[in-house]
Amino acid sequence: MLRIGLTGGMGAGKSTVARILTELGAVLVDSDVIAREVVAPGTEGLAALVAAFSDDILAADGSLDRPALAAKAFATDEARATLNGITHPLVGKRTAELIAAAPADGIVVQDIPLLVENGLGPFMNLVLVVMADTETRVHRLETFRGIDRDDALARIQAQATDEQRRAAGDVLLDNSGAPGDLEPVVRELWERRLVPFEANLRAGARAPRGAVRLVEPDPTWAAQARRVIARLAVACGDKARRIDHIGSTAVAGLPAKDVLDIQITVADLEVADELRESLRAIGFPRLDHITTDDPKPGTDPARWVKRIHANADPGRAVNVHVRVDGWPGQRFALAFVEWLRADAAARAEYLEIKRKAEANAAGLTGPAAIEAYLAVKTPWFEQVYPRVLAATGQDAASE
Ligand code: ADP
């Protein structure tokens, strides 16, 4: 089962995207609907609210009078905490029930208006953010929802900013155009990314990769890596000592293969092996055929052993290296990025090698392409290894 978080500011078009995804076959879990359901007449939720806030919060027909509740519950921080203490666990429980009831091969879309505000992105396999500029949203809220302009603006300003949403979104869906513009975009996302992502996740398979190709540096690589790291952190819990963005995409301005390299630092190889299932469960299956980095000359090869995972999402290639704290490969990965960030000549030298490696892999795909690429890169890494350690103040002898 794939878990997709869907969010966006009021009037951006979440419900519209949710409808399209549902038509394509997604299982929709709508947090606004759940929030109403758990306090409907006859529920324990409504009874608890009455016990806390008195029956002044009931309308004549016995249903919840929302404005009356709001007047009481938003009056003080304590009252607000009481309200949340009643509703949040019920919403959480109902959400979990609905997700558990979805089929094993389901693509569950959780429509959560406050996903960004509540930091829920790391618990999703992917976050979709529907974007539209403020003026467009205000106009829609006035036209279609009868909310007056000042009220619409005030509500929009109380929510996350566009910048915060952009940082949280793996996929940004622009809905500032005509109503029909979104449908083909969402359909393509569904067919090309969500459906294969779900199938890969369920099978414990990585997504296939195309030819080895260097691309111009993407200024969003760092933010993309932060989202991946946040998800990995949830899966690893305290088994990860640290999780870092490493490799070329961690160096601003450097052309690179469009693959994010992430390093999870663990205490020992047993812990690395314990992470196997938890990483697979969030779409990072282990690649069993690779068990080590290339040991550098003069070091103990046993301390270059690592685990490597690749990801199931065909829309964003990620390699996750699980390395042991203090072993040379773990230290080198961090030092290499530090060296490149600090030294323009080092970046130029590395780029030249990457270009040669890319040329060597031209026309090849899959493992053959990687092999041809590495045939150029590996010898360079051997000669650069002592220089990186020296430049970053590390002692090769301690390896
Ligand atoms: P949200 O769920 O994010 O608050 P909705 O999907 O309900 O937003 O959209 C808000 C309103 O704007 C709805 O009445 C919807 O029909 C309308 N709407 C959505 N997308 C567009 C669009 N591209 N152009 C014009 N109106 C739109």
Salient structural properties:
single chain; 399 residues; alpha/beta; Rossmann fold; Beta Polymerase, domain 2; four-stranded mixed β-sheet; 14 helices; 50% helix; binds adenosine-5'-diphosphate; coenzyme a biosynthesis; Dephospho-CoA kinase; Depp_CoAkinase; kinase; GrpB/CoaE
Q: How is this structure best described in words?
A:
- The protein has 399 residues and is an alpha/beta fold.
- The protein has two domains: 2-202, Rossmann fold (3-Layer(aba) Sandwich); 214-398, Beta Polymerase, domain 2, CATH 3.30.460.
- The chain is 50% helix and 14% strand.
- It has 14 helices and eleven strands.
- It is elongated.
- The model has no long low-confidence stretch (mean pLDDT 95).
- Adenosine-5'-diphosphate is lined by residues 8, 10-16, 130, 140, 144, 175, 177-179.
- This is Dephospho-CoA kinase.
- One of its GO terms (cellular component) is cytoplasm.
- Keywords: ATP-binding, Coenzyme A biosynthesis, Cytoplasm, Kinase, Nucleotide-binding, Transferase.
